[in-house]
Amino acid sequence: MSKVLVSYQTLYGATREAASVIADTLEKDYGFQVDLYQLEENKITPDSSDYESIIIGSCIFHGKWGKSAEEFLRNDFTNKNVAVFVCAGFAGEEKLHNQAHRVFLEEVLEKYPRLKPVSMKAFGGRVPRAKIPHIWYLQATKKMPSFGYDTRNLEKVKEWAHELGNLFRKT
Ligand SMILES: Cc1cc2nc3c(=O)[nH]c(=O)nc-3n(C[C@H](O)[C@H](O)[C@H](O)COP(=O)(O)O)c2cc1C
Description:
Blueprint: E1 3-9, H1 14-28, E2 33-38, E3 53-61, E4 64-65, H2 67-72, E5 81-87, H3 94-110, E6 119-123, H4 134-143, H5 154-170
The site of flavin mononucleotide (FMN) has 21 residues, from helix 1 and strand 3.
């Protein structure tokens, strides 16, 4: 049976939530055998030779990928289906979505030319108010009101999971 790895890095949980929806959909609706794996610093990364398809997801902070997720992109995934996604507050806003896609996906992937993803998606995110200092939150939302918005949309994540399910089935 075809095996899929859904790997992700998260801090506040939005990327984990998206990765879980993707993993569930591929397992339940498409019958793939799926492993869900959290990429973290100082943790061994999974052996990619076990999988036909690899999905890599990262949270975005200060315009950057999580370090462990970006390091994972350096692997040799020749002959595998690779799909990449990010969860970033601004990517969930209509006005900023295309820019987020370009900066957080296209420009980052240009650094790893041997990686040729079959698909890439930028999803929204959320800054959990309780997890950052109140004064800091107030300052940030004053400068950028949209910083405080919850821009997640799990329906979009699910739609993408179906796209991937169909793509992976064909190969
Ligand atoms: C300190 C800080 C910096 C952030 N920087 C960005 C950013 O540069 N661009 C963006 O779109 N979202 C930014 N965000 C929002 C995160 O992308 C959002 O919280 C996302 O859900 C993080 O993923 P995670 O929940 O999986 O950790 C930032 C949030 C914080 C708290």
